[in-house]
């Protein structure tokens, strides 16, 4: 198969084209046999690449459709298709993915000329860190599930312990694979590698879908149990329930707390695997590789961290108040007012910041980065696609509230929250996407302003008078006769403490002077972009934390649920909410990229 061979550029063609400076030689060269041969080889390579992508995409599509049919059948008809049947299908897919990943690690990537190029834009540290973080939480989640099943083994099947064990092995192997090989542009076994990557993407998508539906059923059971407890307090409602032992409660609460991380892990893995699939057979020229990689430095920001920290602290307080009230059987009306009021105040600030940043981008004279970059293209698609989750829920809420006629304060706040959230998502997407497509400032210009001056600030720092005084006193005490050794040791320790405090003060002073100097030498446009980006990063972090750890007022307030019905609104929330959480997390990475390149 053509796609399984090593794709190399035609060296004769490269050398021949380099030796054709005039138009006449170029015309003769284009008529030559060598030119036609190189062009046909490159055309066959492109055709083979398109055919391999098409075949692997069709494979993933069929796997996703098959798994979706199984999961949907389990939801609508639990008699013929049970959760155990879906677990068996997912176990088979995970074992196949494990075999391919191990083969890639030990076979494909170890071949000569296998990885000639590495995509510097792919596999950013925050992406790989997210894979490790969410993967670790998913492993702990499966450990809690195994412990919970073991305690209730008298009413559960022993096979239920096998599936979380396979999941743990799959998560560990996949996390190791993505951490070490996310930047690979593999040059051998193209079609087999594409099919393996697409099979792994399809498996992660099905795991995400299964996690969403399982969470749907779990929350539904929990809500029904709450209603039963309101009517029959103290009665036993099920035979297979967790006992009053502490270890059982720990497994149960830990499983509920860590459950959202599993959905985030699947989505992040899909994004990394897609970039690897796009990079199969890709050859990167030298001008595509950046000479200097931008690094994150806390420079040029003062007001952004202050405003962002205020938003984070306030959000944590609101979240804790909400969680305390939400654990009760009947949440109070006031806590919903406080929760939505926090959003109504924060969302306009974020929207104004994003609009100002977009205007500054328009005022800049920076050129657009037009180089081919699969990672950036995927970031744009994920930002636009993940935002549809929150935007869709907001439009459903707007229709329900307007149709029912908002009269009280809570309905007005929810309506304002929905409109502001739509506007905030749109403005933030425009700001991030515009920033990702612009070239970064040249590092040499920064060094021209900050380098010599910063060295001068450090060099002109005069020695402290106390330092010379203490050294003279030390010499004097050493020359005095009759002093005891205890007094000398105490004096030396005191002098050392005084020196360490003095050095620490000098270092802090140098650092503050250097920071103020670097801040003052940045243009007002760059300062504004960094302030806005940092503020939006902190705001998106707190807006990610609150729904991830259980704050779901869109279902618990009962307004939209009473309009659409229990089952319909549950489907809308459980498909839109995970996408909204993923959007906040992905926005943090995009905003950090905008901050670094500003």
UniProtKB/TrEMBL annotation:
The chain crosses the membrane at residues 54-75, 87-106, 126-149, 161-179, 191-211, 256-277, 298-324, 336-360, 380-403, 409-432, 532-551, 563-583. Residues 473-498 have a biased composition (Basic and acidic residues). One of its GO terms (molecular function) is proton channel activity. It comes from the Eukaryota. Pfam families: Otopetrin (PF03189). Residues 1-24, 452-498 are annotated as: Disordered. Keywords: Cell membrane, Hydrogen ion transport, Ion channel, Ion transport, Membrane, Transmembrane, Transmembrane helix, Transport. The keyword rRNA-binding does not apply. Coiled coil: none annotated. Belongs to the otopetrin family. This is Otopetrin-3. It comes from Lepidothrix coronata (blue-crowned manakin). The gene is OTOP3.
């Amino acid at each position: 198969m053509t796609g399984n061979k090593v794709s190399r550029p035609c060296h004769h063609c490269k050398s021949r084209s380099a030796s054709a400076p005039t138009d006449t030689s170029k015309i003769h060269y284009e008529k030559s046999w060598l030119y036609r041969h190189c062009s046909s080889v490159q055309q066959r390579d492109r055709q083979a690449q398109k055919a391999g992508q098409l075949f692997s995409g069709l494979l993933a599509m069929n796997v996703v459709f098959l798994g979706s049919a199984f999961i949907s059948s389990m939801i609508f008809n639990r008699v013929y298709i049970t959760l155990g049947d879906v677990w068996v299908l997912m176990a088979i897919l995970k074992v196949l993915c494990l075999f391919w990943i191990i083969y890639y690690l030990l076979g494909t990537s170890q071949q000569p000329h296998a990885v000639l190029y590495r995509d510097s834009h792919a596999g950013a540290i925050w992406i790989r860190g997210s894979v490790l973080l969410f993967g670790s939480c998913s492993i702990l989640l499966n450990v809690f599930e195994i412990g919970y099943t073991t305690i209730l083994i008298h009413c559960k099947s022993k096979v239920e312990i096998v599936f979380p064990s396979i999941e743990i092995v799959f998560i560990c192997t996949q996390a190791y694979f993505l951490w070490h090989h996310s930047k690979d542009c593999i040059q051998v076994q193209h079609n087999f590698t594409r099919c393996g990557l697409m099979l792994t993407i399809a498996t992660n998508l099905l795991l995400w879908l299964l996690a969403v539906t399982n969470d749907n059923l779990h929350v539904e059971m929990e809500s029904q149990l709450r209603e039963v407890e309101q009517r029959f307090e103290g009665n036993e409602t099920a035979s297979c329930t967790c006992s009053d032992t502490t270890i059982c409660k720990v497994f149960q609460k830990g499983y509920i707390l860590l459950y959202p991380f599993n959905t985030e892990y699947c989505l992040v893995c899909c994004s990394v695997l897609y970039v690897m699939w796009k990079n199969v057979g890709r050859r990167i020229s030298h001008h595509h590789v950046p000479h200097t990689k931008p690094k994150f430095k806390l420079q040029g920001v003062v007001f952004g961290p202050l405003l962002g920290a205020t938003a984070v602290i306030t959000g944590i307080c609101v979240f804790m108040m909400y969680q305390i009230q939400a654990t009760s059987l009947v949440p109070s009306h006031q806590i919903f007012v406080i929760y939505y009021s926090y959003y109504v105040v924060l969302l306009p600030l974020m929207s104004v910041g994003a609009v100002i940043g977009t205007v500054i981008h328009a005022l800049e004279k920076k050129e657009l980065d037009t180089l081919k970059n699969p990672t950036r293209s995927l970031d744009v698609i994920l930002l636009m696609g993940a935002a549809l989750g929150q935007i869709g829920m907001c439009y459903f809420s707007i229709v329900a509230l307007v149709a029912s006629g908002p009269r009280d304060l809570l309905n007005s706040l929810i309506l304002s929250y929905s409109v502001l959230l739509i506007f905030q998502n749109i403005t933030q997407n425009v700001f991030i996407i515009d920033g990702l497509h612009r070239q970064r400032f040249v590092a040499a210009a920064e060094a021209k302003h900050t380098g010599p001056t910063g060295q001068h600030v450090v060099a002109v720092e005069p020695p402290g008078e106390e330092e010379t005084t203490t050294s003279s006193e030390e010499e004097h005490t050493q020359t005095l006769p009759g002093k005891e050794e205890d007094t000398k040791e105490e004096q030396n320790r005191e002098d050392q403490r005084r020196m360490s405090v003095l050095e620490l003060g000098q270092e802090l002073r140098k650092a503050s002077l250097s920071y103020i100097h670097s801040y003052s030498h940045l243009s007002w446009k760059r300062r504004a972009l960094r302030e806005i980006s940092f503020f939006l990063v902190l705001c998106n972090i707190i807006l990610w934390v609150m729904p991830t750890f259980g704050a779901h007022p869109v279902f618990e307030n009962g307004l939209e649920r009473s309009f659409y019905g229990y089952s319909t609104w549950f489907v809308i929330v459980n498909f839109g909410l995970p996408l909204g959480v993923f959007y906040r997390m992905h926005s943090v990475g995009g905003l950090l990229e905008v901050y670094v390149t500003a």
